[in-house]
Amino acid sequence: MNVLPTEIPEVVVIEPRVFEDSRGFFFESFNERVFSDKVGQVTHFVQDNHSRSCHNVLRGLHYQIQQAQGKLVRVILGTIFDVAVDIRKSSPTFGQWVGCLLSAENRKQLWVPPGFAHGFLVMSDTAEVLYKTTDYYAPQHERCILWDDPSLAIAWPLESPPILSAKDQAGKTLAEAEVFA
Questions:
Q1: The CATH number of domain 47-169 is 2.60.120.10
Q2: pLDDT tens digit string along 9-32?
Q3: 141 has catalytic annotation
Q4: Which listed residue (55, 63, 118, 131) is catalytic?
């Protein structure tokens, strides 16, 4: 596994070591010991999620204000632009974001630690996204920041207005949102 830094030190891109030949490929998508050694964090995942979305769907920016979730995100079909936003008020990178392309072809993963809002835009016809979480889904603690909050100025690679859920349309700006201390 190769760990690539981003502009926000706690958020990293993970490239697995892929063994490929004429029969296909194999790679270890997660190994707790290697993850802890390379990312420098002991993490216990409690839930796996799988979503399928069509082109131009934008999901996010989601987080849980209590039972904060770390997320290890990867794509098994298609391509997404994946985004993490630091919403820890005491952090020197508060309000900053990082984004990267994750795809079935590049097999990269994004580690989004607790204390960050997360979202993605589907760039392909469809995309299937798998992500592991460090805490259970708790709808009573779920919050959403507007994907197009001008204070964040996320450079979403959009060709037309995105397809949003009602929940995502009703998100708050970072200035209005509950954030972490």
A1: yes
A2: 999 999 988 999 999 999 888 888
A3: no
A4: 131
Residue 131 appears among annotated catalytic residues? yes
Domain ranges of the chain: 47-169
pLDDT in tens, 80-132: 999 999 999 999 999 999 999 999 999 999 999 999 999 999 999 999 999 99
Give the list of residues 6+ apart from residue 123 with CB closer than 8 angstroms, or none. 55, 78, 79, 80, 81, 101, 157
Q: Is the pTM of this model over 0.90?
A: yes
Of 62, 118, 136, 137, which one is the catalytic site residue? 62
Q: Which burial class, exposed, middle or buried, applies to 166 when counting CB atoms under 10 A from its CB (0-12, 13-18, 19+)?
A: exposed
